[in-house]
Amino acid sequence: MPVDERLVSHVPTAYGRAVSGGAPHPESDVPARRAAAADDKPRTGLIEVVCGSMFSGKTEELIRRVKRALFARQTVQAFKPRIDDRYAKTRIVSHGSIAIDAIAVSNSESLEGRVAPDTDVVAIDEAQFFDRGIVEVVDRLADAGKRVILAGLDQDYLGRPFPPMPDLMAIAEEVTKVRAVCTMCGASASRSQRLIQAGATVLVGGSESYEARCRACFRARDVAAGAL
Fold first, then answer.
1. Does the annotation mark 126 as catalytic?
2. How large is the average pLDDT for residues 76-81?
3. Facing residues of 124 across strands?
4. CA neighbor of 191 nearest in space, from 200, 199, 202, 180
5. Distance of CA 205 to the CA centre of its chain
6. Which of 102, 119, 152, 191 has the fewest Cβ atoms surrounding its Cβ within 10 A?
7. Which residue has the higher pLDDT, 82 or 89?
8. Which residues pair with 130 in a beta bridge?
9. Per-residue pLDDT reduced to its tens digit, 165-224
10. Where are the domains of the chain?
11. Spatial CA neighbour of 205 closest among 96, 91, 87
12. Does the domain formed by 42-178 have CATH 3.40.50.300?
């Protein structure tokens, strides 16, 4: 399938090394040999997870890292789950209206199939909406030398771990937990309070459906809007 290249920035991959003439000291070529050995090794990938509650700045942090990678002239592809069409179908958009272009996919298999071989960085927003296969997919991408950045909710509307985020956090080299501001008391918020009556774990929505709450103000139950 064609790859959306609007986010893709190509960067040269070959770098020359200067070699001085003359008879080397027995140990003078150690750095060069180490560098040559490093060049022979496959590049090392890694997994970074940015997680927190609604309105905590997860997507903004993912976008910030993507933009830094683009400034470094790295090849980047961004993905989002197809069900998340709150602001745009083919863009990752934060609640603060910061956006980058992205490829909307229906599942982890589709995502893996659309990653180009020369991509350096794979960014994935709303990772909690993907199937559990996303864990194996990002693991394979990292093993292939790619930097994988994921953003997602670490807890659902009842305050429980939100699969597959716990497994993604477990295999990640770096986990960043960001916090929102509690709409009730102004404290640091780590939970997403659902404001509408709905029993499904997956409910895509914004400020009309959720509020950020601290532990003390959070209510882990389904209630009608206006009753919290």
1. yes
2. 94
3. 79, 150
4. 180
5. 19
6. 119
7. 82
8. none
9. 999 999 999 999 999 999 999 999 999 998 876 555 555 555 567 899 999 999 986 544
10. 42-178
11. 87
12. yes
